[in-house]
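Before drawing any conclusions, I looked closely at one protein's amino acid sequence and its backbone structure tokens, quoted below without any editing.
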Amino acid sequence: MKILNLKKNQMITLLDIMIIVALIFALNSYFAGSRENFVSFQRDKLKIIATTNKSEYNKDEIVQFVFTLENKSNKDIELEFYRNIIFNLLIEKDSELVFKRDLIDSLTESRKKIIINKKSKKIFTYEWNTESNMDFIMESGKYTATLYSLDLELEMKINFIIN
């Protein structure tokens, strides 16, 4: 089978195409499975990204949560927040609450505005020391963090592993 009238050693065969498609599918599957610690969505021209700095941690390691607000428009975006904490989080293992970021702090009203310049980002971080504040005995396994913002009316879940 000849394609594009190429010489025998330059021909692209159906087998070559099938191998390339299989390789692309395998890489897509691999990267989709390895990005459980990443979630994003876009609301109008504002892209919101939540992730952790790694997908696996040791029990004594710090988990860094990164929240990114990215302006995709050609105009500045002004966001108004009525709470002291822009992003809050709950951490669970097997549907049992392990950690809850200070709720009183998150409900404390402290009106502030954030301006995200056109085509730029604002990044917020929070570090968790892998200790429970809910009388939970830390065990190895898969954990789920629910990251939410009351002012942005959003909730995102990301997974990570503690060894």
